Inverse folding.
């Protein structure tokens, strides 16, 4: 459906004070949103408001401030539930971020894994969706298998089908690749996994800022979320898990908040979601995250997806005309992310000079060394768009490349 | 190449003073990288890689009983330019002079401030490695 609400980019940019600063004497062009996004004023105001008006520990105190903090904390849980269309708020566990969410499942689910069970991941994964599973497989004597991809960065679903067997206990892959931008067919791949009885864990770090995610429609068992990549605070994230699974898994960490009763002989655990939330949480982060969610929903995820698709189309065309350009990742379903190399040039050199021009990109292997090996490159230059980027900024990137390439050749 | 380390670093500071814009300074670093004499291919081995650099940097040292000669290479041209600066300052000097070298010129030309933290760490690793070689020769 074509969107009808106008998307006022100037108004949006005004809400990000950092976007009007200069870097190395040039207006900042921030294109490292895959690493972290900038924060709207509404979110940073919420942090200040929390400390100036409420600051208190949650879930404990009888006093008024603690009650207010707890209420605000739980409001975020409910908003996040609604945002991803989970059935119950107790299926939303607050974590430190995507990595922490994946490690939680890798450890807790791992306790149910037996020797010779199999776990499947994909070639497109970030190290944080590889290493925890390797550690789990090592710990439990299980086997890790990898879904291959084609040269465009599209996963080979036929090969995936042959990897799925009755031995498969879990399949973990990302919704959107951080290095190439590929949008994976989560719903289809989840259905295929469920047909052999395997659980599915999705790394949603890169999808949450760009897409409307509906965990019930996707029917995934676990979904990992990071706040700071979706215009929220750093140090906070969430793990969505189906209630049935979360009840089945043992808690990951012990401590305060996660218990029902404690004696020296035996401890019983709290109900969901607290069973997985040991210790004082990142209260300020959780509360301020709600402001980011409100802000995103006021714009509308569909509007964001639509606008960023325009940036993808415009940028792909503009960058393709740059001398010596190879764009890595050309999947038909792709987010607004440009991973590329310039013939004969080291990505690091290009990134360094772009920085001198005020253009922030990321260079290197993007924590995806196996994927870089598959592409046979040491790394790439990655310009990852956010909803505040503009076509004019893409022009600035292209002009910047046209200036630095002759210098480096 | 017989001037002292002090003279060589003063020359470099003067050179960099000629450029106002950092893009021009980088341009100069890149041309120094392009002019860096080729390292003997047999020395481009993993044992000669400097740890702590995001791009690959090979450093080789030779000692003739009086002076140390450094050769180096990198797969990134800016890194190569930076190591060319270091080679220009320290190559052909005695181990004692290298060990005691005052290398504050990298701050003076503003290089450290204009490098990303990973690259600045790489520069520190380069200097450490060069001084380490000199220290080893000094004790021979």
């Amino acid at each position: 459906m074509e969107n009808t609400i106008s998307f006022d980019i100037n108004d949006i940019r005004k809400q990000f004070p950092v976007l009007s600063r200069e870097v190395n004497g040039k207006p900042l062009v921030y294109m490292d949103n895959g690493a972290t996004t900038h924060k709207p004023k509404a979110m940073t105001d919420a942090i200040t408001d929390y400390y100036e008006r409420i600051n208190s520990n949650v879930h404990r105190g009888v006093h008024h401030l603690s009650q207010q903090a707890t209420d605000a904390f739980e409001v975020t849980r409910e908003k996040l539930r609604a945002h991803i269309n989970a059935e119950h708020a107790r299926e939303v566990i607050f974590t430190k971020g995507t990595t922490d969410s994946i490690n939680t499942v890798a450890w807790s689910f791992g306790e149910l894994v037996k020797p010779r069970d199999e776990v499947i991941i994909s070639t497109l994964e970030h190290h944080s969706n590889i290493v925890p599973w390797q550690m789990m497989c090592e710990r439990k004597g299980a086997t890790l298998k990898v879904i291959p991809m084609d040269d465009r960065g599209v996963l080979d679903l036929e090969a995936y089908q042959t990897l799925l067997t009755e031995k498969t206990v879990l399949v973990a892959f990302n919704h959107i690749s951080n290095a190439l931008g590929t949008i994976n067919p989560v719903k289809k791949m989840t259905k295929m996994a469920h047909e052999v009885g395997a659980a599915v864990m999705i790394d949603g770090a890169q999808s949450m800022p760009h897409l409307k995610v509906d965990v019930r429609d996707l029917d995934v068992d676990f979904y990992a979320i990071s706040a700071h990549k979706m215009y929220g605070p750093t140090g906070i994230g969430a793990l969505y898990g189906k209630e049935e699974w979360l009840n089945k898994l043992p808690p990951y960490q012990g401590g305060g908040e996660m218990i029902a009763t404690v004696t020296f002989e035996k401890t019983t655990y709290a109900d969901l979601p607290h069973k997985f939330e040991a210790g004082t949480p990142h209260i300020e982060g959780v509360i301020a995250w709600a402001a980011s969610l409100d802000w995103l929903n006021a714009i509308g995820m569909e509007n964001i997806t639509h606008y960023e698709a325009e940036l993808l189309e415009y940028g792909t065309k503009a960058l393709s005309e740059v001398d010596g350009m190879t764009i890595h990742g050309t999947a038909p379903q792709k987010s607004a992310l440009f991973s590329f190399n310039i013939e004969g040039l080291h990505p690091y050199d290009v990134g360094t000079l772009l920085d001198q021009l005020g253009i922030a990109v990321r260079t290197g292997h993007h924590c995806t060394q196996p994927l870089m090996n598959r592409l046979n490159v040491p790394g790439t230059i990655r310009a990852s768009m956010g909803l505040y980027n503009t076509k004019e900024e893409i022009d600035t990137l292209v002009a910047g490349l046209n200036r630095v390439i002759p210098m480096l050749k | 190449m017989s001037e002292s380390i002090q003279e060589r670093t003063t020359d470099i500071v003067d050179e960099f003073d000629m450029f106002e814009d950092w893009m021009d300074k980088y341009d100069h670093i890149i041309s120094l990288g392009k002019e860096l004499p080729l390292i003997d291919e047999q020395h481009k081995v993993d044992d000669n890689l400097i740890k702590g650099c995001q791009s690959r940097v090979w450093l080789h040292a030779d000692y003739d009983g009086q002076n140390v000669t450094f050769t180096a290479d990198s797969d990134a041209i800016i890194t190569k330019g930076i190591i060319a600066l270091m080679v220009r300052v320290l190559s052909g000097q005695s181990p004692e002079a290298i060990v005691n070298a005052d290398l504050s010129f990298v701050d003076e030309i503003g290089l450290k401030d204009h490098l990303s933290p990973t690259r600045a760490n790489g520069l520190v690793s380069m200097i450490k490695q060069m001084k380490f070689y000199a220290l080893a020769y000094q004790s021979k």
